[in-house]
From TrEMBL:
Residues 181-239 form the tRNA pseudouridylate synthase B C-terminal domain. Responsible for synthesis of pseudouridine from uracil-55 in the psi GC loop of transfer RNAs. The active site is at D47 (nucleophile). SUPFAM superfamilies: Pseudouridine synthase. It comes from Marinimicrococcus flavescens. HAMAP family: TruB_bact (MF_01080). One of its GO terms (molecular function) is RNA binding. InterPro entries: PsdUridine_synth_cat_dom_sf (IPR020103), PsdUridine_synth_N (IPR002501), tRNA_psdUridine_synth_TruB (IPR014780), TruB_C (IPR032819). NCBIfam families: TruB. It comes from the Bacteria. This is tRNA pseudouridine synthase B.
Amino acid sequence: MGRRSKGRPINGWLVVDKGVGITSTQVVNRVKWLTQAQKVGHGGTLDPLATGVLPIAMGEATKTVAYVMDARKGYRFTVRFGESRDTDDAEGEVLASSELRPSDEAIEAALAPFRGEIQQRPPIYAAVKIQGERAYDLARRGEKVELEPRPVRIDRLDFVRRVDADHAEFEMECGKGTYVRALARDLGEVLGCHAHVSKLRRTAVGGFTLEHAVSLNALEGVVQEDSLPQVLVSVATALAGIPALAVTEPQALRLRAGQPIRVSPGLFGGEQPSAGGTVLITQGGDVVAIGRFDDGEVSPLRVFNLKGGHAARA
């Protein structure tokens, strides 16, 4: 017999509104301790300085983490002009300073080159690997870190308001791998005044928004009231942008056994899948599998064991 996992078999996404000064790993550990869930992971790291949406995968939802990591993200952040810092945020050491402060018109004009597909150099304090080691580990040891620019996508970048002479607030929607800290650094260079991020709040990760989010303090109360299922978000929410296919129970059994099924492209709801594209398969409202559609056939890639909803009690 296989070894039984310790903890409660909870399946679904918990969207935490992360507070400032705590790491994403600490949030995961706290959630696991509070809920006693068998399996917990997160869908996209937030720096300790940052607050906001941190999706936490529980149970079968951990199989969809990669799709959440690839999802578009939304941020609201404040840039502090006049100082560059080694971490490109308020937690770092000051590298250079300037008395120059850009006008609102200069800020607005400087944003255009940062929209769309751009090349961005990650901060040296980043999780990017260099010959097997994280860049931030090398930087903390005082070693020289050189990172090459890489392509990222910024779908929306808006100048919201001028907080005061030193600070301005922005909103951004972007693709995977985009660093807000790097954007602030580069904006300061373009404006000739140096800059870094002083405040950062993530407002969305794919289909997960602040409307879904609960704080760790609120979560403690939810657990004490035994009402966790009321705040969980379904596994399917992480896969909302994928073409969907509803199948029969015999087809679901075949897919869960690792076998392909034949389907007509016209049966997909919403966007039609491309050849070799990823599809979401459901049956009776439950997620059955993530599959690949090719030449009229769907083959399972990841299979889920969800019945009767997204939360199960031990």
